[in-house]
């Protein structure tokens, strides 16, 4: 549940070091997925849970968990390929075009962000073929994937690939709650040897729900400590946050702007009461993301969106939740926006 590395497209197992299951900060909410991940990492290749699929919304630690699994598996074999799914499917080398050749050279295939191939039918067919070849024609192989969204997110794939994925084991990581965020901040303090007070740690945990933002803010706090040779006060931290434009209110504005851009409309259209269908759905999407990530109350969101009644916001959020269940296009829009913003 830590920030991703900048280069997410190709991470050979040989360079994934010093990451263990003990580093994955969690509590009872994610205990079961973590235990299953440990099982996959320690059992014989392909013994069960194949493919093993980790789902979850943004900032839940999917990529980090895959890297931990890869680290554990690398102790048993060097025949591991860990790549971004889109990059894997777009490779032109012969070994990647022919699954039977691939499995002669590798025991483990770990693909991050398989939702990124949903718009390419041929890539979906290619991945389905890899799964078939692994399960029916080879031994001692294991497939591990991550996919943005809830466990029902697999409906966005075509039938052939979806059926192969659903025959594996699918787990879902939930977003970090206050307890987890506080523990993560404590870990950052320990790693950077910066002793923030309980009040300061609570201040940060209350304002940020995503680890990427917390990691970025802590980098600024570390820089402050290095430059001024002292620990920041609470007021210093507030100034650092404001100077970087990452307060919750600014995150809210960022959500509005990104949503308007995706729907090709003006920010003012979302904020006011225009009833064009495209504007209405854009406004509902923005409300849903604000509610999901910034934890505003329905009443607060109503005020932000032009003094709307709280029931209007509640209706909008519930509508998007229902669309995410069976609307592939909406799932893609929400996933892409969350990745851009958080």
From TrEMBL:
<keyword id="KW-0963">Cytoplasm</keyword>
<dbReference type="InterPro" id="IPR020591">
    <property type="entry name" value="Chromosome_initiator_DnaA-like"/>
</dbReference>
<dbReference type="GO" id="GO:0005524">
    <property type="term" value="F:ATP binding"/>
</dbReference>
<dbReference type="InterPro" id="IPR010921">
    <property type="entry name" value="Trp_repressor/repl_initiator"/>
</dbReference>
<keyword id="KW-0067">ATP-binding</keyword>
<dbReference type="GO" id="GO:0008289">
    <property type="term" value="F:lipid binding"/>
</dbReference>
<dbReference type="Pfam" id="PF00308">
    <property type="entry name" value="Bac_DnaA"/>
</dbReference>
<keyword id="KW-0547">Nucleotide-binding</keyword>
<protein>
    <submittedName>
        <fullName>Chromosomal replication initiator DnaA domain-containing protein</fullName>
    </submittedName>
</protein>
<comment type="similarity">
    <text>Belongs to the DnaA family.</text>
</comment>
<dbReference type="GO" id="GO:0003688">
    <property type="term" value="F:DNA replication origin binding"/>
</dbReference>
<keyword id="KW-0238">DNA-binding</keyword>
<keyword id="KW-0235">DNA replication</keyword>
<keyword id="KW-0446">Lipid-binding</keyword>
<dbReference type="Pfam" id="PF08299">
    <property type="entry name" value="Bac_DnaA_C"/>
</dbReference>
<feature type="domain" description="Chromosomal replication initiator DnaA C-terminal">
    <location>
        <begin position="251"/>
        <end position="320"/>
    </location>
</feature>
<dbReference type="InterPro" id="IPR013317">
    <property type="entry name" value="DnaA_dom"/>
</dbReference>
<dbReference type="GO" id="GO:0006270">
    <property type="term" value="P:DNA replication initiation"/>
</dbReference>
<dbReference type="GO" id="GO:0006275">
    <property type="term" value="P:regulation of DNA replication"/>
</dbReference>
<dbReference type="InterPro" id="IPR027417">
    <property type="entry name" value="P-loop_NTPase"/>
</dbReference>
<dbReference type="InterPro" id="IPR018312">
    <property type="entry name" value="Chromosome_initiator_DnaA_CS"/>
</dbReference>
<dbReference type="InterPro" id="IPR013159">
    <property type="entry name" value="DnaA_C"/>
</dbReference>
<dbReference type="GO" id="GO:0005886">
    <property type="term" value="C:plasma membrane"/>
</dbReference>
């Amino acid at each position: 549940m830590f920030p991703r590395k900048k280069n997410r497209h190709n991470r050979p197992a040989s360079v994934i070091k010093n990451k263990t299951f003990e580093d994955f900060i969690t509590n009872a909410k994610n205990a079961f997925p973590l235990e299953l991940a440990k099982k996959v990492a320690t059992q014989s290749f392909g013994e069960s849970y194949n493919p093993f699929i980790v789902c979850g919304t943004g900032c839940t630690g999917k990529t980090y968990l895959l890297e931990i699994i890869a680290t554990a598996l690398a102790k048993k074999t060097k025949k591991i390929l860990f790549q971004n799914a889109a990059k894997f499917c777009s490779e032109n080398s012969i070994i990647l075009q022919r699954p039977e050749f691939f499995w002669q050279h590798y025991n483990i295939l770990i693909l991050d962000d398989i939702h990124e191939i949903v718009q390419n039918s041929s890539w979906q067919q290619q991945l389905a073929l890899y799964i078939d070849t692994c399960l029916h024609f080879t031994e001692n192989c294991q497939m591990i994937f991550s996919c943005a969204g809830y466990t029902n997110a697999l409906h966005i794939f075509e039938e052939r690939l979806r059926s192969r994925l659903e025959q594996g084991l699918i787990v879902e990581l939930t977003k970090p709650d206050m307890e987890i965020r506080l523990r993560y901040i404590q870990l950052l303090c320990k790693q950077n040897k910066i002793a923030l007070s309980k009040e300061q740690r609570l201040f940060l945990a209350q304002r940020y729900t995503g680890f990427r933002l917390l990691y970025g803010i802590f980098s600024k706090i570390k820089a402050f400590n290095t430059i001024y040779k002292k620990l920041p006060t609470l007021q210093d931290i507030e100034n650092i946050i404001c100077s970087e434009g990452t307060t919750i209110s600014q995150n809210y504005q960022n959500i509005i702007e990104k949503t308007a851009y995706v729907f090709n409309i003006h920010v003012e259209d979302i904020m006011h009461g225009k009833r064009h269908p495209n504007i209405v759905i854009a406004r509902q999407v923005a409300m849903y993301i604000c509610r999901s990530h910034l934890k505003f109350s329905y009443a607060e969101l109503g005020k932000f969106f032009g003094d709307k009644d709280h029931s209007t916001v509640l209706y909008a959020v519930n509508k998007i939740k229902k669309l995410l269940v069976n609307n592939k296009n909406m799932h893609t829009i929400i996933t892409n926006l969350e990745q851009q913003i958080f």
